[in-house]
Amino acid sequence: MRVLAGLLCTVTLACTVKANVEKTVFRGPGDLLLPHVHPRLDALRLGSLSHAHPVLPTQLPAHFPSRAAPRGLESWYLLQRLEAARRYEVRICWPATQPTDFWLDTFTVRDVFDTPGLVKSLTQYSEHHQQFHLSESEHYEPAQSATAQSVLLLRIQAAASYYSTNRTLMEHPEPVDVDITNAPVLDPFLLNILPQSLAPFAAYFTVVAIGAWFLSGYIFHWIDSVASEPLLKPHSD
Ligand SMILES: *[C@@H]1O[C@H](CO)[C@@H](O)[C@H](O)[C@H]1NC(C)=O
């Protein structure tokens, strides 16, 4: 009984910890000259992540899912100075005491400005953010550089996922404390040829294959020695 309780506890704990990280993997797009393509981007004053500032501690507004917004509130960030074609992973971590569902999506600047729904969400966020949420901890880096660079826009959707009898809280959930990080995905195997997700299987099959090779050699020698052994003792019947 105790063991079962312990096991259940471990399983629940593992799930809770897992629920506190959400991530998305993407590749850096081709370089683009921002001021030429979208002078408006800089005016949005989005918080940004780059290799010089890979971690962004901030507070994200969340809302309970509604029919109009089943994924709660949307926030936007700029992923700057990426390397074209390199794989990256954006993660969001938040405390278990603030149960929230997150969805992360990356879009190219062109995709966003060509899709009315995304432009609307982005400008709404920017206006609201500049009025109420521009915190000191958020790193702001002007995109107005003359050199071309690889950039993406990150959309985070946050829906509160708890229930409270407090009506104020149900209508206006508290903002969630999060850490947003962006880091290159390191592929140590075979110069990026083998996807990282397959690496454990590759290692497993290599070990099994080597084991099988030695085992078959051992069995062969054993059969060989048994076969060549003279029968010293005749059968009793
Ligand atoms: C309801 O939640 C709000 C916001 O967190 C808080 O200020 C208020 O004291 C709470 N009310 C009750 C009755 O607990």
What can you see in these coordinates?
The protein is of the alpha+beta class and 237 residues long. The protein has one domain (19-198). 36% of the residues lie in helices and 26% in strands. It has helices at 2-19, 34-37, 40-43, 109-114, 116-133, 167-171, 199-228, and strands at residues 21-27, 47-49, 55-60, 73-82, 87-93, 100-107, 150-160, 176-184. The strands form 2 sheets. The protein has a 4-stranded antiparallel β-sheet. The protein starts with a helix and ends in a 9-residue tail after the last helix. It binds 2-acetamido-2-deoxy-beta-D-glucopyranose. 2-acetamido-2-deoxy-beta-D-glucopyranose (NAG) binds at residues 166, 168-169.
By helix and strand content, what is the structural category? alpha+beta
Rg = 27 Å
Largest sheet: 4 strands, antiparallel
**Number of self-contained structural domains:** 1
Strand content is 25-35%
What small molecules accompany the polymer chains?
2-acetamido-2-deoxy-beta-D-glucopyranose
Order of helices and strands: HEHHEEEEEHHEHEH
